[in-house]
Amino acid sequence: MSRIGKHPVPVPSGVTVSVVGQTVTAKGKLGEKKLTLIDDISVEMKDGTVVVLPRAETRRARQMWATSRSLVNNLVKGVSEGFTEDLEINGVGYRAAVQGKELVLALGYTHDIRYPIPAGVTMKTEKPTTISILGPDKQQVGQIAAELRAYRPPEPYKGKGVKYVSETILRKEGKKK
């Protein structure tokens, strides 16, 4: 039995969730999101919670049970609270700034990198060396953070580059004489 899937998803106040067939729609202060689940999973509203159950005892239904519950939970949490990912930039002359609808990164290349900010996502740069990505879709926020990190991943000798705030860089010792 799934340990994650058996817990119902609580719906906080200010969020309305509707279930039509296999489509779950959540509407909250950060917008409206839809999710279509596979046919092996049944989803229904009960007492202000969303309950996800497998339709049959097949292997695929049991595999997708907790996955579907987590997706519904992320959908509800996304429209109510949102998700955030923080990046940190280390290196002399490395900086970030939000200009209009794009993020401008100076990462030691001959040109500035201009990253267009997608609709529904907000980016903040309180300091020139930090980037905060906020949005209702956990997958999209994580994907944007990974793309920004990929422009200049942190290197192990001086730690220069773009890294997650929670990430620790394994440092290497330099060359010896």
From TrEMBL:
Family matches, as PROSITE patterns: RIBOSOMAL_L6_1
Phosphoprotein among keywords: no
InterPro entries for the chain: Ribosomal_uL6-like, Ribosomal_uL6-like_a/b-dom_sf, Ribosomal_uL6_a/b-dom, Ribosomal_uL6_bac-type, Ribosomal_uL6_CS
UniProt entry keywords in alphabetical sequence: Ribonucleoprotein, Ribosomal protein, RNA-binding, rRNA-binding
Source organism superkingdom: Bacteria
GO annotation, biological process: cytoplasmic translation
Annotated Large ribosomal subunit protein uL6 alpha-beta domain residues: 11-82, 91-164
Coiled coil ranges: none
Entry GO MF terms: rRNA binding; structural constituent of ribosome
Signal peptide range in chain numbering: none
tRNA processing in keyword set: no
Gene Ontology CC annotations of this record: cytosolic large ribosomal subunit
Free-text function comment from the UniProt entry: This protein binds to the 23S rRNA, and is important in its secondary structure. It is located near the subunit interface in the base of the L7/L12 stalk, and near the tRNA binding site of the peptidyltransferase center.
Subunit structure: Part of the 50S ribosomal subunit.
Similarity comment text for this entry: Belongs to the universal ribosomal protein uL6 family.
Protein name: Large ribosomal subunit protein uL6
Lineage, uppermost ranks: Bacteria, Pseudomonadati, Pseudomonadota, Alphaproteobacteria, Rhodospirillales
